[in-house]
Amino acid sequence: QLQLVESGGGLVKPGGSLRLSCAASGFTFSHYYMSWIRQVPGKGLEWVSYISSSGTTTHYADPVKGRFTISRDNAKDSLYLQMDSLGAEDTAVYYCAREGTGVYAYDIWGQGTMVTVSS
Amino acid sequence: EVVMTQSPATLSVSPGERATLSCRASPSVSSNLAWYQQKPGQAPRLLIYGASTRATGIPARFSGSGSGTEFTLTISSLQSEDFAVYYCQQYNDWPPWTFGQGTKVEIK
Asked: Do B87 and A44 touch (CB under 8 A)?
């Protein structure tokens, strides 16, 4: 079935780095635009980053610009988020999500991976 | 940046009753609006896109309406599984893609 599975979350110290992964299955990953969206526990949803199907176009939310890097490996059906210079404000559940063709909204979501930035 | 504002923050409804949730966009987002449902400990689920089109597998009791700056999600007869938090999101003017702050539908 259509599935996205995130991994790589955990506890990291302020100023540290972490790399999140998102493995796709059940669909042709290379055809779809993908995004990372985060959610502070108990709070709302915040879009973080976007990547086009080929990987040539990326966008970032202002709070993460210059610190986070989104990438993808279509041969491995995988999406990544490299997070550097992490701060407490980055503590959240991180979801990868697929933008549906002709839908333009996020029609498939992963289960999320928790990132905690704390000393 | 498009600002999305949802109201009310919390809606108390009895099972079987109708629920009406509002979402306002500033500026206009045409019909480029989606609604999501999120239950505790779960990822969001797409309910509605294009302001009024139900996503695959979404029951007919969920309906969306509106365009421009005013949108509504209606749940015609609340079932126990519908008590959750609902978010609207615009994809008209990006980046960034922006979400409302959510409306929690709770049991009255």
From this structure: yes
